[in-house]
C-alpha cells in the first residue's frame, strides 16, 4: 500500500529547491523583460534534455508546473503579439518524447500497440474515448456555427491536457512510481502554502515592493490579490484547488489511523500541523466556491463516519475535536502572520470579522453580481442547442459589474467564451450528451471508490481521493476546473491511482 507520509526529506528539499529556482526565474523574467524569452527557451531546452535522459523526471516537472502554475504562465514567451505559456511547451515536448519512444518499438514490431500504450488496459478507457468523441464533435460544431478560429482554439486548447492520460499511465504503471508521485505532490503543496503565507505577510505589512509582487502575480496568471478591508487581503491561486484535495487526503488518513491504528503523539502532531496549514491556506483564499466544496466534503466525511465505517462515539468525538482544533490553529496561524509586529502592520481590521463578512453572500460585490448576471444569459444560450451544444468558441454577452469592464464599456457589456459556471460551460460547448459522458466518467470513478471503501475500510488513499473528487465536482459548479488543465490533471491522477489500487492494472 502506498504511504503518502513516509516522505524522503532529502528529495523533498531537492524538489523544493528546484521549485524555488523556477519561481526566481519567473520573477527575474518579469523584472527584466529583455531576458524573459531567453529564460523561456533555456527552461524549455533543459526540460527537453531531462526528458531525453529520464522521461519520468520530465513528467514530474510537468506535474509540478501544473500544481503551482495555475494558468501556466509562470514563465512565458512573448513576441509579435503572441504569448506562449511554458505549460504548452512542456506539454508539446513531453507528448513528442513519449510518442517517439513508443512509436519506434511498434514500427520495428518489437512490441504491439497494446503492449506499448498501457492506458488501453484502463477500466476507464471507454469512458475517456466517449468523452473524447464529444470533444471532437464540439470542435467541428464550433466551426460549423461560425465561431471564430481564435475563439475555438483558445477555448478548446485546455482540453488537450486529456491526452496526457496516455503517457501518464506508461510513466506511473511501468515501475510503480507512486511514492515519487506522492513526493512531487507533497513538495508542491508545501511550496504553495509557503508562497501563500509569504504573499500574505508582504501585503499585510505594506512593503515598499508590494506593487511589484502584485503585478508579477497578475502577469504570470498565478492568482488574484484583492483588498477586502483596510490592510486585509484575499489571496487566491487557481492552483489552490490542489490544496483542497490534499486536505481531504490527509483528513482521510487521520480518520483511518484513529479507526484502525493506535495513533502516536508524534504522528498526531504531524497530522495536526499539516492539516492546519492546508486548511489555513483554504481560508486565506476567501473563495466561497472552495468553502462550499469544503463543507460538502466534510458532510460526506461525517456520513462515512456514521454509516460506512460505523465509528464508535469515541472515534467520532476524536475526529470532531481534531477538526475544531485544526480550524482554531488555522485561524491563529493566519492572525499571527498578519499581525506580526515587524515591520508595522498595515491597516486596522479584525481578521475574524473579515472572514465572517466574506462568508456572507453580498449582492453588491462585483464578482457576485457579474456571476449571477451571466447565469440567465448562459442558460438562454444553452437552450439554443441543448443536446449537442454550440461548440467550442461559443460566446455569451452579459452585463458585467467588473470595474475594468465598466471602464471600457458604457453599459458594462462583456462578451466571452470563458465562464465561471464550470459544468454549464461544458454543457454549452459539448452539449447535454457530452456533459452526461463527462459525468458518467466521474460517476464511474466515484462508484468504484465507494465500492472499494465498503470492502476495504482502511483504504485511506482511495477514501481521501474520493472525498477530494466530490469536493472538486462541487467547486466546479461555480468555477471552471474540469474544462481546465488543473481539474483535468487531478481527474487523470485519480483515475490512474484507482486503476492501480482498485483494479490492479
Question: Can you walk me through this structure?
Answer:
The strands form three sheets. A two-stranded antiparallel sheet has the order 1-2. A two-stranded antiparallel ribbon has the order 3-4. Strands 5-6 form a two-stranded antiparallel sheet. The chain is built from 20 helices and six strands. It has helices at 9-31, 33-53, 55-69, 86-107, 113-116, 125-144, 149-156, 165-174, 178-204, 210-219, 240-260, 265-284, 288-308, 313-338, 351-359, 366-383, 403-408, 422-455, 460-478, 485-501, and strands at 76-79, 82-85, 223-229, 232-237, 396-399, 413-416. The mean pLDDT is 91. By secondary structure, the protein is mainly α. Helix 11 packs antiparallel against helix 12 (265-284), helix 13 (288-308) runs antiparallel to helix 19 (460-478) and helix 18 (422-455) packs parallel to helix 20. The longest helix is centred in the C-terminal third of the chain and has 34 residues, at 422-455. The protein has three domains: 32-116, no CATH class; 117-176 and 362-505, no CATH class; 189-360, no CATH class.
Structural descriptors:
two-stranded antiparallel sheet, globular, 6 strands, 70% helix, mainly alpha, 3 domains
Structure summary:
By secondary structure, this protein is mostly helical.
- Give the overall silhouette: globular
- Sheet with the most strands, sense and barrel status: 2 strands, antiparallel
Helix content: 55-70%
Q: What amount of the residues lies in strands?
A: 5-15%
Count of alpha and pi helical runs: 20
Derived from helix and strand composition plus strand pairing, the structural class reads mainly alpha
Question: How many strands?
Answer: 6
User: From the alpha-carbon coordinates, what is the Rg to the nearest angstrom?
Assistant: 23 Å
Gap from first CA to last CA: 14 Å
Calculate the mean pLDDT score and round it. Answer: 91
